[in-house]
Specification:
By secondary structure, the chain is an alpha+beta fold. The protein contains 11 helices and 17 strands. A hairpin with a 5-residue loop joins strand 11 (259-261) and strand 12. The longest helix is centred in the middle third of the chain and has 28 residues, at 117-144.
Length: 385
């Protein structure tokens, strides 16, 4: 009897070991060292389709070591390490162990990564995105100071964006099923995607990644999201084809109407605001570096001409609704937000390619001008008032 009990105990112990091994085999590990961050807290976050969720954190000691373990998903998933306001993005597509070494001062840019080719590719993509952002920010400052002409500014901005897309396309078209391809497709500048969903060439990039994710990861929420975006892109692009209107009865409309929620949640319609008024329609992003200066300029114009019949209908494309509400709460004009953010149908209908975008409606509701140079904005408004 004692012998049987011993055998059962051994078998039970072996079973526990095997179960422990199985549970561990389904986990991934992100670990490493951050120098110069003694006493700081590093956070491990999941980057979802529409939200970022903090999963874990660790207070760093003098040796700077950290380690996070989580259950792996059967499809690529995205995470980031956050130290103060700096981020390192990582993609996990198996039960790998990713090792990172970084310095607190250059946490987001000068780190090294081992154990994941996807994470190495994401670093390359991130650096290209940061380069483009820095270049475009520099161009905006020069343009604001009137150091470069309009045409030069537009050309240089497009060149900077294209430089990023050249790097991104390398990963998108060489391995469209990869985590790096997905990551490259959804990088942004000032809240807008580098890859335009409604551009024929860029649409192919969405289609390539969407098709691959449908095939390789049909259970991933990102596959469904990509699939819907690709279909939306195709629908809009087909709608842009030349149409014969000779035999179609038409009803004249003066402008494309918009109806979006205000900071209180009430719906505001552009056509209601525009009755008998000159209206400045502004697509913007409150989180952009240039936003405060733009709003100060609009504030001066609004103060000078509101009593004469000027209204402003400002549309936020910010993804962070809380940030928008705080920023817009003290503005005197009509502030609304499109929850579709970078996928805004309203922005697409107005053919908004970059932010800020400014349009003027006259007192009859006719869209009379798209303002490219804010320096001419007040004069254009005065003429209509």
């Amino acid at each position: 009897m004692k012998k049987i009990s011993t055998q059962l105990l051994s078998a039970f112990t072996l079973l526990l070991v095997l179960l422990a091994g199985c549970s561990k085999s389904n986990e991934f590990t992100v670990k490493g060292i951050v120098s110069g961050a003694d006493g700081e807290t590093i956070y491990f976050e999941n980057v979802g389709i529409s939200a970022v969720t903090t999963l874990d954190s660790a207070k760093l000691s003098a040796d700077g070591k950290f380690k996070f373990q989580r259950k792996a998903t059967p499809y690529p998933e995205f995470y980031r390490l956050r130290l103060n306001k700096q981020f390192i993005n990582v993609a996990i597509d198996s039960t790998e162990t990713v090792k990172l070494i970084a310095d607190a001062g250059t946490f987001a840019t000068s780190y090294t990564v081992e154990g994941s080719e996807s994470c190495k590719a994401i670093k390359d993509i991130t650096l290209a995105q940061l380069d483009a952002n820095m270049e475009i920010s520099k161009l905006r400052k020069a343009y604001g100071a009137k150091e470069i002409a309009d045409s030069t500014y537009r050309t240089k901005v497009l060149e900077a964006a294209e430089a990023y897309k050249t790097v991104a396309k390398k990963y998108i078209f060489s391995a469209p099923m990869s985590a790096a391809a997905y990551f490259a497709l959804f990088q942004q500048i000032d809240g807008l995607l580098f890859f335009d969903l409604y551009d024929k060439a860029d649409s192919r990039a969405y289609g390539a990644v969407a098709t691959s994710y449908d095939h390789y990861y049909p259970e991933s929420p990102r596959s469904k999201h990509l699939h819907n975006l690709a279909l939306q892109s195709i629908k809009v692009l087909r709608g842009q084809r030349p149409i014969n209107f000779d035999n179609i009865k038409t009803e004249e409309v003066s402008f494309l109407d918009i109806e979006l929620p205000t900071i209180t949640g009430e719906m505001s319609k552009l056509s209601d605001l525009a009755k008998g008024k000159v209206v400045l329609v502004n697509f913007t992003a409150y989180q952009a570096e240039w936003s405060p200066a733009l709003n100060m300029e609009l504030g001066k114009i609004y103060t000078n001409h509101h009593s004469s019949g000027l209204e402003i209908y400002q549309i936020s494309l910010d993804s962070d609704a809380h940030f928008w509400k705080n920023a817009a709460s003290n503005l005197p004009w009509m502030c609304v937000r499109d929850p579709q953010s970078v996928y805004s149908q309203a922005a697409a209908l107005y053919n908004v390619k970059q932010l800020p975008a400014l349009f003027i409606l006259d007192k009859n509701g006719n869209l009379v001008k798209r303002v490219e140079n804010i320096g001419t904005l007040e004069a254009s408004i005065k003429g209509l008032l």
